[in-house]
Amino acid sequence: APPVPVSAGVSVDSELAARCKLQIAAAERAPRFDFDQAALTAEDRDVLVQVARCVTEGPLKGRRLALVGRADPRGTEEYNLALGDRRAHAVSEYLARLGVSELRTSTRGALDATGHDETTWRTDRRVDLVLE
After folding, report:
1. CB contact at 8 A, 3 and 129
2. At what angle do helices 77-97 and 42-56 cross, to 10 degrees?
3. Interstrand relation of 127-131 and 10-12 (parallel, antiparallel or unpaired)
4. CA distances (Å), origin 121, targets 42, 88, 117, 124
5. Distance from the CA of 38 to the CA of which of 45, 46, 102, 121 falls in 20 to 30 A?
6. Do 75 and 113 touch, CB atoms closer than 8 A?
7. SS3 for 102-121, per residue?
8. Residue range 35-44: mean pLDDT, rounded
9. Is 99 helix (H, G, I), strand (E, B) or coil?
10. What's the pLDDT tens digit per position in 115-131?
11. Dihedral sign, CA of 39, 111, 95, 23?
12. How far apart (Å, rounded) are the C-alpha atoms in residues 9 and 5?
């Protein structure tokens, strides 16, 4: 199943969302990362706190997370891969500060991007959290 958007810049796989009982706002309407940015929003950090609790002391304690950075299709392939990597590392660094140690980061850049204008490109600019 495709990842479920849970905050401005973060999507999670459906098992992670369900098992962690993530409390989320209207994430499907939330903008993702700003163009050419990798900074987390307050909403992203709130969701990541919930994820961290779940994998450090909750029902998914000890489970490993894969963090996949993504970008919209503008820019070169090399640039978008690097931007996706910066986004994944921003999430990884925040989760690590919260005590999550089982993390793997990767980037897809714009390889799976589906947007075609500013509105739809926003959904391409995110980090997906997937249980391993």
Report:
1. yes
2. 60
3. parallel
4. 21, 18, 6, 5
5. 102
6. no
7. CEEEEEEECCCCCCCCHHHH
8. 90
9. coil
10. 999 888 988 999 999 99
11. positive
12. 8
Instruction: Report pLDDT for 119.
Output: 86
Provide the pLDDT for residue 29. 47
The whole-chain average pLDDT of the chain stands at: 89
**How many CB atoms within 10 Å of residue 31?**
13
Instruction: Give the least confident one: 7-11, 41-45, 61-65, 126-130.
Output: 7-11
Containing H/E element for 50?
A: helix 42-56
Nearest to 103 by CA among 75, 78, 68: 68
Structure tokens at 123: 């959904």
Going by their DSSP bridges, the two strands 127-131 and 103-109 should be labelled as: unpaired
For residues 9 and 39, the answer to whether their CB atoms sit within 8 Å is no
CA atoms within 13 A on the CB side of 32: 25
The reported pTM is: 0.89
Name the residue among 129, 131, 132, 58 with its Cα closest to residue 94.
129
| Phi (first) and psi of residue 107, to 5 degrees | -135, 145
